[in-house]
Amino acid sequence: MLTMALMCLGAVVGRFVLPHWWARANSRVQLVLTVLLIFTMGVSIGRNEDLLHNLGTIGLDSALFCLIPMAVSIALAHLLAKRVFGAGEGAGEGEGE
Amino acid sequence: MVFLAFGALALGVLCGRLGSGLAAVDVLLSSSDLILNLLMVSVGVGIGMQRGIVRKICQYHLKALVIPLGVTVGSILGGAACSLVTGYPLAEGVSIAGCMGWYSLGGVTIGALSGGVYGGVAFLSNLMREMLSFFCIPLLARYLGPAACIAAAGATSEDTTLPMMMKYTNEESVVLSVLNGATCSALVPVLISLSYQLLG
User: Which alpha helices (H) appear in chain A, and where do they start and end?
Assistant: First the structure.
């Protein structure tokens, strides 16, 4: 709930308080914070002996958690878009190179 | 971004292996909740600054939400299927897949809620999704169309994978891609929170 509240607070600040040029700085702030978070996550992983010993299993599980939701998402979005937008309109069919 | 993320992760693991002697690393580690909270505010600021989003959604008469709906429902169903295959608890499985490619937030949040192993899977699987979608977009655009490209990218369709969308789809699809990314990004914390409350 706290994360949701913080995100809503940020949205209000972004909409009504900050000037539009702040968007670029904001994306840089996001990048720095993301890198710091990933770094701290790496430290947690590095200090966790159990996790390192199970890295093979984790890798396999991660591949499953990547492929299956991605495949189901693609299938559902493709079918829905084709039905709603119709062929040749909107995102149903593209002009891919 | 992907290389930066890998670099930060590798450096973090290395520092973690060196032990707890580095004071700066310990301070950073103990501040991870604060960093996550700041990131959430920053994400909100980014959403608030996209002023055309509501108008563009109205132009499409809510048709634009069809793709995020497919991505979100597909990710939830996929996460549930993965839970059955791997034996993970349903709340964790749905949460991991519900990150829809947002590996940084997912890894840290799920790691804090369920422990390092689940956090590691959330991070790795969503990082894989971002990388795989980046390289699959040309093929998906050619054989299935822009909706499939947007769906593969999930929450990343408004930032890291957007250049690929611009190159391989049309302008209208790029707008839909940004809308999808913003919608999915806003839904990720809600999905994680709801799956732990309802399924945990």
Answer: 2-16, 22-47, 49-53, 55-85
